[in-house]
Design a protein that fits this description.
Elements (H helix, E strand, L loop, with lengths): L1 H27 L70 H4 L5 H6 L1 H8 L6 H13 L4 H18 L4 H16 L17 E6 L6 H14 L4 E6 L6 H12 L2 E3 L7 H14 L4 E6 L7 H17 L4 E7 L4 H14 L3 E5 L9 H9 L3 E5 L7 E3 L2 H9 L2
Parallel strand pairs: 1-4, 1-5, 2-3, 2-4, 5-6, 6-7
Antiparallel strand pairs: 7-8
């Protein structure tokens, strides 16, 4: 019996120990996290129904237009129109009479190269062969040309020998007379703008690239307007970008009408229309600006001849002015020969005669073509294109 009781006590103790181990192990394990609560989901707004599901609109109070109160003082709405573009102000060019005299200072560098150089050599006490050779070199360097140089030196030698004494005043007068004779005081230098048939005078401006044809055409328009003429401009340079815009700007400044065509269009067509409109407007002159072209390109030169022929179907050409860059010297004479063969040059415009240009080119180009220099450019100003006056030009070369 005692053994049974002891066995029961041992069993109770063992069960109690096991129960304590189980309870302790349960206390050491972490409890699982609580299950997440479901988020609140906001229901999307109800979509409008269409068709059979559409709801019947609810009746709401409405006001008529008469019942709506307008702000006090409200008047009719006024729409302002944009201001009309102002016409460009018409400029009045300065008179052309005596313009070359006013621009005499622009020839200062040419004066040093030619006139003053000759006066210095002629003022030497002894004019030996070496001195005369220096005089020849001075003339050739100034682009006078071989034949005109020889003629001038021969006359100077003869007159100096006859003169005997050579005071500065006498030498200056002698040189002035000989240079004026060489320049050609009797040549007709008028830019003809009077047509025998009573229509406008037609002037075509030609030349190689870069000589300033478009600018010269615009300045020539100012010269003619300053002398009281009405002018129509023909922008027949359709190959150079913005050439027509440039010419039109020149024309607007003096009130001249500009006829132009599409870019890269037919230049002969533009020239034809310009003459036609000039006749309809009873203008005094029509100036046609042509595209620059290399004198060595036969196709381009033939096209220039075509422009001339097309214009003459509308009216005879009164002037064909060749624009030459005076700084190119003898190379300009080569250009002049080719252009003269194609379009019968009647006059020369020498540009860039100020600065480093050599005044002798005036003599050389006239001898080469047999046509006069009619206009010279002496700067970049709008009124720096002057009618050529032999006496004023020579006075500018040799100084006071």
């Amino acid at each position: 019996m005692d053994i049974v009781i002891l066995a029961v006590v041992i069993a109770v103790v063992v069960l109690g120990a096991l129960g304590g181990l189980i309870v302790g192990s349960r206390r050491k394990k972490p409890l699982p996290p609580p299950p997440p609560t479901a988020p609140d989901i906001t229901a999307p707004p109800a979509e409008p129904h269409v068709g059979e599901e559409a709801e019947t609109p609810r009746e709401e109070p409405r006001r008529t237009i008469e019942e709506v109160d307008l702000p006090a003082g409200a008047g009719p709405v006024v729409i302002e129109e944009p201001p009309a573009a102002e016409a460009p102000e018409i400029e009045i060019p300065e008179p052309t009479a005596g313009r070359l005299v006013r621009l005499r200072a622009r020839l200062s560098r040419s004066q040093n190269a030619l006139g003053q150089g000759l006066l210095t050599l002629l003022s030497r006490e002894h004019l030996d062969e070496d001195t005369w050779e220096e005089i020849e070199d001075t003339l050739l360097t100034a682009d006078v040309g071989v034949q005109p140089t020889q003629e001038l030196v021969d006359r100077l030698r003869e007159r100096v020998k006859v003169l005997g004494t050579r005071t500065p005043v006498e030498l200056r007068g002698l040189l002035r007379e000989e240079l004026i004779t060489l320049v050609g005081p009797t040549m007709d230098r008028t830019v003809h703008t009077e047509n025998a048939a009573g229509g406008p005078g037609v002037v075509m401006v030609v030349g190689v690239n870069g000589t300033g044809k478009t600018t010269t055409t615009g300045k020539l328009a100012r010269v003619l307007v300053a002398d009281g003429n009405t002018v129509v401009l023909g922008a027949a340079d359709t190959f150079r970008a913005a050439a027509a815009d440039q010419l039109q700007t020149w024309g607007e400044r003096v009130g001249a009408h500009t006829v132009r065509g599409p870019e890269a269009g037919d230049p002969a067509s533009v020239a034809f229309d310009a003459v036609k409109e000039g006749k309809e407007m009873a203008a005094d002159a029509v100036l046609i600006d042509t595209a620059g072209r290399l004198h060595t390109k036969t196709g381009l030169m033939d096209e220039l001849g075509k422009v001339k022929r097309v214009v003459e179907k509308q009216a005879p050409l009164d002037e064909v002015l060749l624009v030459l860059d005076a700084t190119t010297g003898q190379n300009g004479l080569v250009q002049a020969r080719v252009f003269a063969e194609v379009v019968d040059i009647t006059g020369i415009v020498l540009t860039k005669l100020d600065g480093t240009a050599k005044g002798g080119i005036v003599i050389a180009v006239q001898r080469e073509l047999g046509v006069p220099v009619k206009l010279i450019g002496l700067g970049e100003g709008a009124d720096d294109l002057a009618p050529f006056e032999p006496e004023a030009f020579v006075d500018a070369l040799i100084g006071e």
